[in-house]
């Protein structure tokens, strides 16, 4: 499953990401882009950066990838990770 986060220190605030995928990316009053959890609609702005990673719904994956490619600040990081946590104990 794809996940995305933004390094706010690199963000130039151009807003191209919000043009590509407004469901996932949001430009806040500080002029910097953040990612939004599509299911909860909460903006992952605290603390920001890698700690604010969100899952990307499959139907939006290509839009998120296009946003990362077009980002002038190269601040959008797309990761293919499995966040599966084993609820059972180790034997």
If you had to describe this structure to a student in words, what would you say it looks like?
There is one protein chain. With 91 residues, the protein is an alpha+beta fold. It has one domain: Alpha-Beta Plaits, CATH 3.30.70.20. It has 2 helices and 6 strands. The strands form 2 sheets. It has a 3-stranded antiparallel beta sheet with strand order 5-1-6, covered by helices on one side. It has a 3-stranded antiparallel beta sheet with strand order 2-3-4. It is globular, with a radius of gyration of 14 Å. The C terminus is likely disordered.
Number of H- or I-type helical stretches: 2
Tell me the number of structural domains: 1
**What is the percentage of strand-forming residues?**
15-25%
Rg? 14 Å
Q: What shape does the CA trace take?
A: globular
Give the CATH level 1 class.
Answer: Alpha Beta
End-to-end separation: 28 Å
Low-confidence stretches: 85-91
Helix content: 10-25%
Secondary-structure arrangement, i.e. CATH architecture: 2-Layer Sandwich
Mean pLDDT: 90
Biggest β-sheet: strands ordered side by side in the sheet: 5-1-6
CATH fold descriptor: Alpha-Beta Plaits
The number of strands is 6
- Helix-strand string: EHEEEEHE
Largest sheet: 3 strands, antiparallel
Alpha-beta classification: alpha+beta
């Amino acid at each position: 499953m794809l996940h995305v986060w933004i390094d706010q220190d690199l963000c130039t605030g151009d807003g191209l990401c919000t043009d590509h995928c407004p469901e996932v990316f949001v430009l806040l009053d500080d002029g910097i882009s953040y990612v939004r959890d599509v299911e909860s609609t909460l903006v992952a702005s605290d603390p920001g950066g890698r700690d604010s990673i969100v899952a990307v719904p499959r139907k939006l994956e290509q839009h998120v990838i296009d946003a990362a490619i077009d980002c002038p600040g190269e601040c959008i990081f797309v990761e293919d990770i499995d966040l599966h946590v084993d609820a059972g104990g180790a034997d």
